[in-house]
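Wed. Picked up where I left off yesterday with Chromosome partitioning protein. The coffee machine is broken again, so keeping this brief.
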Amino acid sequence: MNEESRETMQSDHLDDSAPATAPHHEAPPQPVEQEHRTADRGEQGRRGELVELSATLPGTERAGVGANGPTGRPLPDFPVPAPLTSHGPARIIAMCNQKGGVGKTTTTINLGAALAELGRKVLVIDFDPQGALSVGLGVNAQGLDVTIYNLLVERGHDIRDVIEHTRTPDLDVVPANIDLSAAEVQLVGEVAREQILARVLRPVVDDYDVILIDCQPSLGLLTVNALTAAHGVVIPLECEFFAMRGVALLIDTIEKITDRLNPRLHVDGILATMYDGRTLHSREVVRSVVDHFGDQVFHTVISRTVKFPDATLAAEPITSYSSEHSGASAYRQLARELIARGGAA
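Structure written out below (tokens, as returned):
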């Protein structure tokens, strides 16, 4: 093939391919940076939608005074109470629920610390043989010769000698250890056995503004003692369906004790704990509790967070361990709400 024929063939090939591409006016490929910017704008848009959605979900930290809180009711203003000019007599509050793992000990520690921040003198009673309250406040109860157990079953002890001071100012504790598990058996034969704790606490009632009793997860004789000694009951309730089932039984027990042993006993409130506003289940449990118990349910709700076990491991309340955390803010609000309701001085 000569040079002239080869050039003619190449020219024909180019002419055939030209019409195939000429009618198409496709946009040039988008630069990589511009693609990223477009994706970022889409991601930001989705994030903005999520932020708007979270603002409408119950249980988010965005709810303010007057807006609907996690319980679905308008959130009242709980002002900081005026300082006290004197201390005592104490109002005794039992932290009670026969189901375990609902936040009784966590609430006792952190509510006590929040009340102490408000200038109240607070005494917490470890009334659970597991001794978790004592450990959570940095007290090694296993090494103590005298605990709440000895005050209950032995004569001649003064509660002032058993009280331990904690690192939190104005927050003291009466510790317990595994010995307390034997107390129920030993108290069975005692006269007025349901009123023994009330007798034990009597000498220090005028020294404190609030006494919180961390009850064991049962409705046995120790819990009956706590309810007989108390003025009020706070019922921590985990935001989980099975936790709801025992509340009616507990309320029935409280009513019997009010009728037969302690006419002054009053339910201060039901506290929703371990709440997760991202789950429909938590929101439905809170809604159901409010439907059944109405204003007995605290407006304050305690959300689930890893900071609570972290603070327990550090043996201090969350109000000092992580003062700015939302969990600390929730317990401070609970303390103000309890005072506003008349549940504390």
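Quick read: Residues 32-56 form the longest helix (25 residues).
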